[in-house]
Amino acid sequence: MGIFDSFRKEEVAGTRVLVGQLLPKFEEHFKSDLRVYKRFYPAAGGATFMSVAELRGAAGHNYDVLHLFCDVDASGVITDASGDRITGTELLKAAVDSGVKLLWIGNDNPQEAYDAGFKTKGPKINVVLTLRRLGSNTSLFLDSLLAKMQAGETFAKAWSVASQPKGKSVQPDVPHTISSLGRGSVVLK
Predict the structure, then answer these.
(1) 126 touches 66 (CB < 8 A)
(2) What is the pLDDT of residues 16-39, one digit of tens each?
(3) CB of 145 within 8 A of CB of 162?
(4) What pTM was estimated for this model as a whole?
């Protein structure tokens, strides 16, 4: 891969989206974000996983977008009711190996948990880790982001414009996130 390959748009037609939650405790946000994805990708699916094994399996099903709701503990680990575990880095690796272009953790988790468990530098994937949703603002932000990509913007450009609208140095209603654009040239259509 040459240096200019990173600037080349990678358009994905027929984007495959899965919005999932580990246990049914994030229902309101889960339904809200799924509605937004369905507006742009009518075939977007939703799933409630009862175990980490189910979550791990979903990460390996060749989705383009994996938007998840799960608690991340202080050591950066996602654990189910039975005690089965997956680290954030293991989840990222499974997603990258499956061709996921965007992994988004949609619920609030502490930055320290993400820092401990999600090694986002290096993998060829866009990662968004939510610190604070700010209520329904995340769904509104997601809608704006996806609209920009539907219009042909790359993820990196759409992210930049959606998070810092022209003329505003601070955007108070943008959810607080950590983002890593390891595949910023992708356009999800």
Answers:
(1) no
(2) 999 999 999 999 999 999 999 999
(3) yes
(4) 0.93
Distance from C-alpha of 37 to C-alpha of 49, rounded to nearest angstrom: 19
Give me the residues paired with residue 38 across strands: none
In the numeric block, which tokens belong to residue 24? Answer: 């049914």
DSSP string, 53-73: HHHHHHHTS--SEEEEE----
- What single-letter DSSP state applies at residue 131? E
Which of 123, 42, 166, 24 shows the shortest CA–CA distance to 81? 24
**C-alpha–C-alpha distance, residues 130 and 22, integer Å:** 16
Give SS3 for 81. Answer: coil
Structure tokens given for 1: 């891969």
Return d(Cα 98, Cα 172) in angstroms, integer.
35
Tokens of 157: 């450009």
CB of 38 closer than 8 Å to CB of 148: no
Give, to the nearest 10 degrees, the angle between helix 52-59 and helix 88-98. Answer: 30
Nearest Cα to Cα of residue 175 among 114, 126, 133, 128: 133
| Total residue length of the chain | 189
Query: Which two structure tokens, joined as six digits, stand for 18?
Result: 């899965």
Which residue carries 């977008």 as its tokens? Answer: 65
What is residue 149's DSSP assignment? H
Looking at the DSSP bridge assignments, the partners of residue 104 are 67, 128
